[in-house]
Amino acid sequence: MPDAPPVIEIRDLHKAYGPLEVLKGVDLTARQGQVVSLIGSSGSGKSTLLRCANLLEDSQKGDILFCEEPITWRGSGHARRPADAAQITRIRTNLSMVFQSFNLWSHLTILQNVMEAPVHVMRRDPAEVEARARDYLAKVGIADKADAWPAQLSGGQQQRAAIARALAMEPKALLFDEPTSALDPELEQEVVRVIKALADEGRTMVIVTHDMKLAHDVSDHVIFLHKGLIEEEGPPDALFGQPKSERLRGFLSATSH
Ligand code: ADP
Ligand code: MG
Questions:
Q1: Whole-model pTM?
Q2: 173 contacts 112 by C-beta, under 8 angstroms
Q3: 211-238: per-residue pLDDT in tens?
């Protein structure tokens, strides 16, 4: 897998909100089939890095490449913006994001939620999309909830629906931002199982998580962010087994119970 082509590459990324520097030169590569996890204290810049990767946020310096295609920019510093709208659309539709808060549309059934973007944004054939949507709902274990409303589902079921919705885009990579943080422990595990199954089938994923067991079990590479910089990174066994930096050791002992 080290030789697999990169899907997402971020090089020396800098991002500030006004005077607040949130990312101070961060690199990340997710190759095809790889799972990269981002860990670190609250406020270290994990969500910001995901949102920059998905071009939901502007960044001021550094490069972002998607399938080896660099984003083209115009302007510089705080005026820097992506230059090519078609490129942005192409990249966004190939990177599906799953949020902590599920973000299902409450006025649509579960099936309609999963079908919405492929049919209305990507203009795919509705019958084909529906067949695949049902397959994805089965894959995440909620085939029987197709006609239910989001409010009728547990948090774990809603998050699995959100994962089915992300898969229905047929993306080249999935981005997860704390996908289990809003869930009770027993519901967390049903989402963890789905994420592990996706990793096993070779999906390219970047996962922000507070769940160190998930990060350990599912990742090819783990990045520990501290105040907008990579403090330490490596394969999960090394990172969790022999953490080198004092800060990472402190973080791990504070998060393990
Ligand atoms: P994490 O996901 O690691 O908890 P975030 O990326 O959400 O961290 O936030 C990193 C820093 O950026 C924090 O100090 C946060 O307050 C700040 N921040 C995040 N989003 C915004 C925003 N939209 N405007 C201003 N500051 C923000
Ligand atoms: Mg966050």
A1: 0.96
A2: no
A3: 999 999 999 999 999 999 999 999 999 9
Q: Which of 17, 46, 225 to mutate to test the pocket of ligand 1 (most atoms within 8 A of CB)?
A: 17
SS3 (DSSP) at 254: helix
- Map out the domains of the chain as residue ranges: 1-94+203-257
The answer for 154, left when phi > 0, alpha when psi is -120 to 50, beta otherwise, is beta
How many Å apart are CA 235 and CA 35, to the nearest integer?
11
Cβ < 6 A, ligand 1 pocket: 17, 20, 22, 40, 42-48
d(CA 27, CA 23): 10
The residue whose CA is least distant from atom 26 of ligand 1 is: 17
Report residue 115 as tokens. 């079908």
Please tell us whether the domain made up of 1-94+203-257 is placed in CATH 3.40.50.300: yes
Q: How far apart are the first and last CA of the chain?
A: 33
Residues contacting residue 85 through CB under 8 Å, at least 6 positions apart: none
Give 40-56 pLDDT, tens digit per residue.
999 999 999 999 999 99
